[in-house]
């Protein structure tokens, strides 16, 4: 029988206070896991952990800060060995044409979306190696890493890099029993997407999605449960699109 349970496992989830990260945390708790969620905003993080119940712990972390990443991995591991890492923290604040993106904006997008996920993964993987434990890493990428989207070129470049580092980690760490995969969502319900779809661009954007709608965070979380559980024990190095068919256009 296929096993979708995460009973007895501990997951570290970055950007876990809202949106996709929170939905993944809730799905993992429902599947039996204990979760350590991180985010920069302490109040929202504490509220999220409280709503998730006794199996959730909040640890503030800015993934763009290397020292923060190192400290967070150490703190989370002391609470119990990490079986699953979900690199969900990400930003896409600059809906600008490429020539208008400043050096500071470029660096911030790279630091959060790619550099943070890279060093968080390396930190967890090294501890798994030392403890001779298997592990699973799930990176939250984007369809923007697969196809170019207007005014999201810098974001897309970071996510394309995340897709490639996912494959490289999967290749190099398979013999150490670390599986590494990525999920590439399309448009997902959020305050930002709601505003965008209510704007003059909304009708065109919706028409570009064969399923005719945006995803819910829970629809992405379902894939995250699958990639973390034993049902996906032979799956590594993949980038799973959850985009309603948008990249088929």
Mean pLDDT: 95
Q: Count of DSSP helices?
A: 8
The count of DSSP E runs of length 2 or more, i.e. the number of strands, is 7
Order of helices and strands: EHEHEHEHEHEHHHE
Content of β-strand: 5-15%
Cα Rg: 17 Å
> What is the helix content?
40-55%
Cα end-to-end separation: 37 Å
CATH topology: Rossmann fold
Q: Report the uncertain regions.
A: none
Kindly give the count of domains: 1
Which class best fits the helix and strand makeup? alpha/beta
CATH superfamily: NAD(P)-binding Rossmann-like Domain
CATH architecture: 3-Layer(aba) Sandwich
| Major sheet size, sense and barrel closure | 7 strands, parallel
- Strand ordering within the main sheet: 3-2-1-4-5-6-7
What's the helix and strand layout?
Layout lengths: L9 E5 L4 H12 L3 E5 L3 H11 L3 E3 L7 H14 L4 E4 L15 H29 L3 E6 L12 H21 L4 E8 L5 H8 L3 H6 L9 H12 L10 E4 L7
Parallel strand pairs: 1-2, 1-4, 2-3, 4-5, 5-6, 6-7
Helix pairs in contact: 1-8, 3-4, 4-5
What would a concise description of this structure say?
The protein is 45% helix and 14% strand.
Keywords:
249 residues; Rossmann fold; 7-stranded parallel β-sheet; 8 helices; 7 strands; globular
Report on this model:
The protein is of the alpha/beta class and 249 residues long. The protein has one domain: Rossmann fold (3-Layer(aba) Sandwich), CATH 3.40.50. Helices cover 45% and strands 14% of the residues. It has 8 helices and 7 strands; from the N terminus they run E-H-E-H-E-H-E-H-E-H-E-H-H-H-E. It has helices at 19-30, 42-52, 66-79, 103-131, 153-173, 191-198, 202-207, 217-228; strands spanning 10-14, 34-38, 56-58, 84-87, 135-140, 178-185, 239-242. The protein has a 7-stranded parallel sheet with strand order 3-2-1-4-5-6-7, sandwiched between helices. The longest helix is centred in the middle third of the chain and has 29 residues, at 103-131. It is globular and about 50 Å long.
